[in-house]
Amino acid sequence: MGNKDNNSNVNFLPIIDKCEGCGRIVEDEQGRHCKSYLIPAAKWKLGFCNFATHAKPEIDIIKTRVNPLKAAKRASKRK
Fold first, then answer.
1. Domain containing 15: what range?
2. Which pTM does this prediction carry?
3. How far apart are CA 54 and CA 34, in angstroms?
4. Could you tell me if residue 3 is inside a domain?
5. Considering the domain boundaries, does residue 79 fall inside one?
6. Phi, psi of 72 (to 5 degrees)
7. CB-based contacts of 35: which residues, under 8 Å, 6+ apart?
């Protein structure tokens, strides 16, 4: 294993505009890059980066219909 630097053979690509504000951005002599992923643009290609700490996905809440007869039956069983 040895005393090699973990990033010695790895070239991280620079971050893109959508990455601005993320907590995973690292700045060094080569520029700013993501410490979790080599190619940041590829993570945003489908619309959202799952590593992003500054943006959360929108979750659609679907309201389901409740059958009042079944609800009353379940409530009576709990007593």
1. 10-56
2. 0.51
3. 13
4. no
5. no
6. -65, -40
7. 12, 24, 25, 26
Q: State the Cα–Cα distance between residues 18 and 50, nearest whole angstrom.
A: 12
Residue holding tokens 């009042």?
A: 68
In angstroms, the CA 63 to CA 72 distance is 19
Bridge partners (DSSP) of residue 25 are 34
With cut-offs at 50, 70 and 90, classify the pLDDT of residue 8: low
- Per the structure, the count of domains in the chain is 1
- H/E segment holding residue 75: helix 68-78
16 in a structural domain: yes
SS3 category, 71: helix
Region 37-61 average pLDDT: 80
